[in-house]
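User: Before I run my own analysis I want an independent prediction to cross-check against. Here's the chain; please return only the structure tokens and, at the end, one sentence I can use as a sanity check.
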Amino acid sequence: MEQRAKAAGKTSAAQVYRRYINANKNPLENLKSVDLSHLSKEEAKEFTLLLEELEKREKRESSMASFYDFVKTIWPEFIAGAHHKRWPRLSTRLLQESQKD
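Assistant: Structure tokens:
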């Protein structure tokens, strides 16, 4: 981390780490905290509708990427044990290995 700190012109490794964390935050979270006071009511409403659509699309995309996320999307009250989290990874790995043959 010290080398990264020097390269970034920072004096401590913690600053480099914080900069990295801030740079890689979910952009959707950044959009949620945007101040809309300077927009007209119509523009603010349009922005809000677009933000909701983006949230829906991200949720849909994540649920298509993993079976576990799909189950959590369909059944939010689902209480997952450790074996529920291992099974999707195992089944995905088995599927990928079978496709190689």
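Sanity check: The chain has six helices and no strands.
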